[in-house]
Amino acid sequence: MAHRFVLDSTHGYIIVRYWGVVDLAELEQVRLEIEADPEFRPGMNRVWDERDCDIDISHEDLVALAEGWSSTSVNHGRRKLAYLVKQDLSWGFNRVFEAYRHQSDVEYKLFRDFGEVKRWLPLPDDVPDPRDLLPNSD
User: In the chain, what are the helix, strand and coil shares in percent, each to the nearest 5?
Assistant: First the structure.
């Protein structure tokens, strides 16, 4: 799997970084791993760093993914979700995904700059860029 994440329960955030080609199975795996982490608690803000990946899923997979996240949303609580993207295609993918989710418990925003993400969530000043915090393990 081409992802890593860090969960900081003290400061209440999760950062997930993807690289390579990411498919439906990988995106679902991330949700399961987060929910299984003993430090996980509802209301944790999130950063999905998709700058170094290509998302390869069909429209049907996108709908299934949105339904999967929506069905467990009660476990995640009210939160902010920052998508960190590099290209317009990722930008569009995430906008469509959020439209299918129909969730009012998530405030989301798309970014291209991690400094802006840190100010919006907010994150502690000493949190490094996800590329440095979570290097590729391939």
Answer: 40, 30, 35
Give the total number of structural domains in the chain: 1
Structural domain includes residue 74: yes
- In this structure, the strands spanning 79-84 and 45-55 are parallel
Tens digits of per-residue pLDDT, 86-130?
A: 875 555 555 555 554 555 677 888 899 999 999 999 999 999 999
- What is the CATH number for 98? 3.30.750
Q: Is the dihedral of CA 24, 30, 31, 36 positive or negative?
A: positive
Q: Are 28 and 68 in contact (CB under 8 A)?
A: yes
Strands (E), the chain: 3-8, 13-22, 45-55, 79-84, 106-111
Q: Which of 129, 55, 71 is nearest to 103 (CA)?
A: 71
pTM: 0.86
